[in-house]
């Protein structure tokens, strides 16, 4: 764009506008919920709804600031994001969440381990899955058996450590 | 007998082989859990309570104290090397420490943290022994309004210190404050912003948020850069020794951190978090090269690390002399005392002097052990980063979820870990600072409650906030902190803005 | 994403239901708290005395125990091997949180331990007796600030009951909630508030050290360790005890309930339980069977009324 026009036509910073919408939505929710609070604060005069209202108002003000800034400045160049690895890690976390109660701690966490390793370029599950599960069993042994942290047990833990 | 006599007697107790063994186990475990993200000293002590039922009371309590001290040492290691605070008091350390590690100065950062922790631990433990009665009297004068003023000061110090963009810093802070509002209002029992989800009634766990933002968010961000980030992570080399300049820039922050951390730890409702935040703020102000802050200033590691160790020692003052726990770990240690039929309080110094002074003397011994454990092993910690990235991050995520699962294995808690992790990634991507979110979550509800308590006591009279000398002074300082920096910035504003505009076109 | 599919397949093959231990005790609180302590003490004694071969403790923290209670009521139904620890705080939390699950949805077995609520002032406070305090309350309710535990908890309820018994409008009490006894203690000792109200155990060390004066205790009988009068003695009809209990799953047969009750009975009467009470400084207020059911119903009734009076429950 340089040198083409005295007043270059800028496109707005889309990210800032999206963030502004999100801040305004959250802020609005806080204000509505705060106003719904029946508590008037008793002797203090500051009730349980006042902090949400205060936070909500400031969030709305920040949303306005984002809009102003987003319209003034052009789009900000971001580095290329590889969303595949991100999806793998999030998928691993979801998998652990779902499997935790069904298979117990070690298998669920071992699979999270393998998913994460694969997101960082280690793409051989034949190695990463067993490594993850063995590490998770060791963690289970130390923290559940030795330090008595209550980690969800499945058949694997019960087979290895007894019930 | 005077303090010296009691301390000598305590050292005799502390040097018994079995007691030494307990202390060694404590400090080793403490360093380990401090290093591991998401597992803090509070959780570890809680887990050990049932295990120590049958053991020697003095030995067990010394082990707990060792875990507490060790956690403060160990917490700095992951903060510096991996940008993943091991426990909440080390969040601030990550700010400068990780920048130093990225610049290949991880070694000096670890050294200044370890030596600073030692100096602070030593001085603060001695202060605990000599000043306990006086500090308690001082702390007793403070009421809710004084704590509110103190927290306002901390807010200002912290938010003025973070980020290049005020708007982004404030946005982060208020996202944290918003998260802090979620859950049952402690003063009225009203549910706020919980949308009928019972797990949200207790609000957002600080550990969950911190682990999600720092560990999960960081892992996602690094993964999303593909191979581009590969070299940056491995680029840490160079000397692990502190240079002459490092020493000369570190010793004042160590002493200042100790001076800030100890009284704050000794005051109820304080704690190592606030101490490290305040120390960071003060170092940024005192620094000879303030422009280095945010890019790996050694003062920003030395001060907060000294402050959080001093605060840990300070916490023991109200715990031992009044039976007042001021942090989660102290509260669990109180339960540990009670498990053995001991009630901490003024009477404890009379009824069980051997135990109390043995405990205090053991802290001095534990501190020496920790220095030995942490200084020569620094190279081992630095070597952590040569572990292949895929195993390292896979392991980090496993331990990050372990902390959450161990305390509360509910799907809601794990979902929060995931959602905040994604949020942490997006915030990193768009250059919003992470730490103010965590700060807002910790301090927001505390400040709100102290304000409302102060107003309830005064029956709605707002002038009560400046009616005590302590609160008046603290609020004045906070006000100056709020007004002066923007004024200074404003005078240079035109220049900066034109430069930005030029860069964009 | 081939390996992910592989992993899922592997996981599916591995999946088998986890089987239960002899007893699983749910502690509806984080590790380290009072309910967790009770659950772990039960675990130790039940195993030591050979009443149960294997006991697991599981923490389900959240919202005054109501998260754990809700999970327990839905997942443990009909399973006689599952127990949950709870207490008076839960009664209030169920009401203030409008919890869909209440104690009627589980099978309460027995009250195990209890503690009186104490009313105390700093040693240099001008208030000398509970009567003086109540006079101040009658004259100007707002001028008496009460420092105690969380809103809607046992301390708050006790203040409400006392106000009512003294003929003061409970909505007018100036109750200042603190998150922990320690924080409240500092405010009381520093004379920041008029009076403190908390578990007697919180105050006793200070009373013994001469820095605090206990004005009254909330139980029907006087409490060991203090010569403070009961509220009843002083003419206010208040009898509150902060108790802890154990409950079994809903949907049990009479035989199953009797068997669980017998196990708990054996535990409470054992030497190691007595020893645990001693070391933990817990008072034995064991009550089981129909007596406990009656007492529990009365407590729930009184709590509901006072929480409505205070205005915490609509």
Automatic annotation (TrEMBL), chain A:
Keywords for this protein: Membrane, Transmembrane, Transmembrane helix
Protein's UniProt keywords contain Transmembrane helix: yes
UniProt keyword annotation of Transmembrane helix present: yes
Pfam families (UniProt xref): TctB
InterPro entries recorded: DUF1468
N-terminal signal peptide: none
Transmembrane segments: 12-31, 51-71, 83-114, 126-143
Domain annotation DUF1468: ranges: 18-152
Name this polypeptide is given: Putative tricarboxylic transport membrane protein
UniProtKB/TrEMBL annotation, chain B:
Domain DUF112 residue range list: 20-438
The keyword Cell cycle appears for this protein: no
Keyword Membrane included in the entry's annotation: yes
TM stretches of this protein: 19-39, 109-135, 147-163, 170-191, 203-224, 316-335, 355-378, 390-407, 419-444, 465-488
InterPro entries, alphabetized: DUF112_TM
Alphabetized UniProt keyword annotations: Membrane, Transmembrane, Transmembrane helix
PANTHER family tied to this protein: TRICARBOXYLIC TRANSPORT PROTEIN (PTHR35342)
Stated name of the protein: Putative tricarboxylic transport membrane protein
Lineage: Bacteria, Pseudomonadati, Pseudomonadota, Alphaproteobacteria, Rhodobacterales
TrEMBL record, chain C:
SUPFAM superfamilies on file: Periplasmic binding protein-like II (SSF53850)
Signal sequence, start to end: 1-20
Pfam families in the record: TctC (PF03401)
Gene3D superfamilies membership: Bordetella uptake gene, domain 1, Periplasmic binding protein-like II
Keywords assigned by UniProt, alphabetized: Signal
InterPro entries: BUG, Bug_dom1
Family per similarity comment: Belongs to the UPF0065 (bug) family.
Record's protein name: Putative tricarboxylic transport membrane protein
């Amino acid at each position: 764009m340089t040198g083409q026009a005295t007043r270059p036509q800028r496109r707005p910073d889309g990210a800032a506008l999206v963030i502004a919408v999100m801040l305004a939505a959250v802020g609005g929710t806080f204000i509505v919920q705060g106003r719904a609070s029946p508590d008037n604060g008793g002797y203090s005069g500051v009730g349980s709804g006042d902090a949400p209202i205060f936070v909500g108002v400031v969030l709305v003000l920040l949303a306005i600031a984002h809009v102003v800034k987003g319209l003034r400045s052009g789009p900000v160049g971001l580095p290329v994001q590889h969303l595949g690895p991100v999806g793998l890690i999030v998928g691993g976390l979801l998998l652990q969440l779902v499997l935790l109660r069904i298979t117990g701690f070690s298998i669920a966490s071992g699979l999270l381990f393998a998913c994460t390793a694969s997101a960082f370029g280690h793409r051989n599950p034949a190695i990463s899955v067993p490594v993850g599960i063995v590490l998770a069993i060791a963690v289970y042994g130390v923290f559940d058996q030795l330090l008595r942290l209550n980690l969800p047990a499945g058949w694997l833990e019960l087979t290895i450590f007894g019930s | 007998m005077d303090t010296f006599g009691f301390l000598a007697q305590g050292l005799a107790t502390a040097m018994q082989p079995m007691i030494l063994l307990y202390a060694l186990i404590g400090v080793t475990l403490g360093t380990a859990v401090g290093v591991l993200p998401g597992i803090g000293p509070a959780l570890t002590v809680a887990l050990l309570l049932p295990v120590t039922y049958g053991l020697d009371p003095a030995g067990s309590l010394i082990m707990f104290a060792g875990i507490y001290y060790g956690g403060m040492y160990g917490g700095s290691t992951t903060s510096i090397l991996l940008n993943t605070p091991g426990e909440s008091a080390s969040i601030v350390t990550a700010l400068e420490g990780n920048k130093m590690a990225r610049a290949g100065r991880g070694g000096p950062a670890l050294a200044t943290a370890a030596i600073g922790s030692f100096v602070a631990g030593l001085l603060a433990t001695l202060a605990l022994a000599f000043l306990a009665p006086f500090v308690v009297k001082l702390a007793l004068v403070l009421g809710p309004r004084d704590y509110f003023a103190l927290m306002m000061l901390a807010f200002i110090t912290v938010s003025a210190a973070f980020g290049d963009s005020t708007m982004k810093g404030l946005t982060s802070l208020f996202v944290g404050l918003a998260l802090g509002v979620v859950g049952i209002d402690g003063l009225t029992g009203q549910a706020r912003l919980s949308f009928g989800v019972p797990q949200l009634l207790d609000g957002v766990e600080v550990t969950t948020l911190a682990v999600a933002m720092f560990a999960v968010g960081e892992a996602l961000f690094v993964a999303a850069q593909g191979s581009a980030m590969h070299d940056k992570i491995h680029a840490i080399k160079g000397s692990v020794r502190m240079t002459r300049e490092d020493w000369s820039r570190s010793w004042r922050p160590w002493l200042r951190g100790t001076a800030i951390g100890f009284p704050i730890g000794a005051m109820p409702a304080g704690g190592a978090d606030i101490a490290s935040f305040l120390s960071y703020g003060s170092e940024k102000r005192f620094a000879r090269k303030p422009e280095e802050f945010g890019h790996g200033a050694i003062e920003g590691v030395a001060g907060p690390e000294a402050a959080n160790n001093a605060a840990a020692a300070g916490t023991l003052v109200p715990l031992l002399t009044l039976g007042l726990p001021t942090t989660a770990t102290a509260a669990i240690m109180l339960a540990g005392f009670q498990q053995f039929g001991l009630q901490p309080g003024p009477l404890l110094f009379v009824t069980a002097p051997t135990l109390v002074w043995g405990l205090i003397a053991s802290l001095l011994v534990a501190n020496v052990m920790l220095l030995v454990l942490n200084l020569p092993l620094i190279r081992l910690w630095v070597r952590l980063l040569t572990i292949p990235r895929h195993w390292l991050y896979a392991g980090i995520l496993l331990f990050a979820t372990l902390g959450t699962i161990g305390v509360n294995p509910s799907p809601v808690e794990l979902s929060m870990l995931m959602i905040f992790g994604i949020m942490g990634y997006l915030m990193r991507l768009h250059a919003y600072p992470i730490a103010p979110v965590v700060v807002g979550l910790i301090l927001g509800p505390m400040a709100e409650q102290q304000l409302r308590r102060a107003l309830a006591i005064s029956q709605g009279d707002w002038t009560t906030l400046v009616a005590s000398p302590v609160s008046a002074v603290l609020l004045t300082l906070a006000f100056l902190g709020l007004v002066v920096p923007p004024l200074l910035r404003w005078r240079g504003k035109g220049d900066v803005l034109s430069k930005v505009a030029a860069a964009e076109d | 994403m081939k390996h992910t599919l592989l992993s899922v397949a592997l996981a599916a093959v591995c999946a088998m239901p986890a089987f239960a231990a002899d007893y699983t005790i749910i502690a509806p609180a984080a590790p380290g708290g009072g309910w967790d302590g009770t659950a772990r003490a039960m675990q130790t004694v039940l195993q030591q005395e050979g009443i149960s071969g294997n006991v697991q403790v599981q923490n389900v923290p959240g919202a005054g125990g109501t998260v754990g209670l809700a999970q327990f009521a839905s997942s443990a139904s009909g399973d006689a091997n599952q127990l949950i620890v709870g207490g008076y705080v839960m009664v209030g939390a169920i009401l203030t949180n409008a919890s869909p699950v209440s104690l009627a949805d589980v099978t309460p077995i027995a009250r195990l331990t209890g503690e009186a609520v104490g009313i105390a002032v700093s040693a240099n406070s001008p208030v000398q007796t509970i009567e003086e305090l109540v006079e101040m309350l009658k004259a100007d309710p707002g001028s008496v600030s009460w420092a105690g535990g969380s809103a809607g908890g046992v301390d708050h309820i006790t203040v409400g009951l006392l106000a009512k018994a003294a003929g003061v409008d409970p909505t007018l009490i100036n109750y200042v909630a603190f998150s922990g006894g320690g924080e409240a203690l500092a405010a009381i000792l520093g004379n920041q508030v008029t009076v403190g109200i908390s578990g007697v155990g919180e105050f006793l060390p200070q009373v013994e050290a001469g820095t605090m004066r206990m004005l009254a205790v909330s139980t029907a009988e006087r409490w060991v360790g203090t010569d403070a009068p009961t509220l009843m003695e002083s003419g206010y009809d208040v009898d509150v005890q902060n108790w802890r209990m154990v409950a079994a799953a809903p949907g049990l047969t009479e035989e199953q309930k009797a068997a669980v009750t017998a196990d708990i009975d054996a535990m409470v009467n054992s030497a190691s339980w007595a020893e645990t009470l001693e070391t933990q400084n817990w008072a034995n207020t064991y009550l089981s069977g129909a007596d406990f059911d009656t007492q529990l119903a009365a407590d729930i009734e009184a709590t509901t009324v006072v929480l409505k009076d205070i205005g915490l429950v609509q």
